[in-house]
Structures are given as structure tokens and as C-alpha cells.
Amino acid sequence: MSLLELDDITKSFGAIHALQGVSLSIRPGEALGLMGDNGAGKSTLMRIIAGNFRPTSGAIRIEGREVHFHKPIDARNSGIEIVYQDLGLCDNLSAAANVFLGRELKKSFGPIRYLDYKTMYQRSGEIFAELKSETRPRDLVRQMSGGQRQAVAIARTRLSDPKLVLMDEPTAAISVRQVAEVLTLIRRLKDTGHAVILVSHRMPDVFDVCDRVAVLRRGTKVADKRISETTPEEVTGLITGAIGAA
């Protein structure tokens, strides 16, 4: 059974039709690359899945059950987490503090409540170990590489043990070595049964870690193929419009 199914999703902003009848599905442990030129509708689709936007029409199903997301917490409660391109990290805080940002653990001593740093450091360390990341819970984010920052953002999604992780351009503007770290993190997510939707302009990344690739052009899905059944040249043609559909 599919983990997530999108059925004929449309989204309009006034006279602008951002998405037109997009259907998509993904299974547990699968990585789907979502590609398209700027303005193709990728970010709009991701924000609908993450609960930031409501579709104008169409249905969203999680494990066969239709769901309606009114806000991001609804998507999170259904097992969906998103890592945005800007990561949303606080540079002046530690890795652990960022992992638990907004979901801090607290203890009580009589009428006094205080942050349970010990448990947050311990749990963060366990998640970084699961991801096989060298990031340490007490490290300050401002001193981290791009790859380590991605590890913190991904670790934050693991707190709720999501079924699906959405990743928006995670390898943009980082070094080759850091790109390799991020792709390894995506493989770890797949190995532990998580589904991943990867939005990326980097063709090698999609062909390296994804099982399938879907292409959007001007708000319409023009292809949805297994990686083994397509080529970077074909996907490029689909993105640019040199190839109509596949």
C-alpha cells in the first residue's frame, strides 16, 4: 500500500493556476525525486503535503485514509515532516537545542519547571548516531558545515519518527563533500523505512539516491518514472519542454 497518495491536486492563487491535476504516490522506504524548472509548482506541492497550503481541489490520502490538513501540525500528526531549504536553524544555539526547538523537554521540581538538557543531549546524540553523523549535541550550529546543519535539520524531523520526510533543495550551495554527507543521510532514512520526497535541481543527486523521479512543468506532472527506466538527458528534456511527456 502507498504511504502517501495525491489524487488530482489543483491549487489556484486567484487567476494563477499553480498546480493542475497532479497525482502522485510514494511507498515506505522509497525516495522520490521531484524536479522541474523554477515556477513549475514543486514548492507549492510540497507546502500542500506539509499542511501550509490547502489544495483548491483533489484528495490527499495517508495509508489509504483521506486526510485534510488545515495547518502544518495536522501534517506532522499524520507522520509528515519537512526540511525547508533555509533549514530554519538558530545559529546561536547548540545542535540539541535546535533539534528540540519548540518541543523542549521539561522537568518539574515542586512548582518550578526547567529544561531537561540532559535528556535532550542524550536523545539528540542517539539520533545523530542513528544517522551516522559526526554532529555532536553540544556543538553550536554557527560553527557547523552545511552537511552538519542538514544533519541537525533531519534529526529534528526524527523526533516524531515520521513516515515521510520532505526535503527542499538540501544540497544547494554546499560543498561536494557535504553533498555526499546529505545523500548518505537520505539513504539512512530509506534504510529505516522512511519515505523521502527530494526536491532538487541537481540531477546527479536524484539519480544517486532516488528510486523514482517525477517532473512538473507549469503546474502539470509530465513524467513519473523509475530511475532505472530513464536518463538524465530525458529528464532534462522533460523539465525544459523539449520532450512533451513520458
UniProtKB/TrEMBL annotation:
Keywords: ATP-binding, Nucleotide-binding
GO molecular function: ATP binding; ATP hydrolysis activity
Keyword Nucleotide-binding in record: yes
One Pfam family in the UniProt entry: ABC_tran
Every ABC transporter domain range: 4-243
SMART domains associated with the record: AAA
InterPro entries: AAA+_ATPase, ABC_carbohydrate_import_ATPase, ABC_transporter-like_ATP-bd, P-loop_NTPase
UniProt cross-references to PANTHER family, sorted A to Z: CARBOHYDRATE TRANSPORT ATP-BINDING PROTEIN MG119-RELATED, SUGAR ABC TRANSPORTER ATP-BINDING PROTEIN
Protein name as catalogued: Sugar ABC transporter ATP-binding protein
Organism: Rubellimicrobium roseum
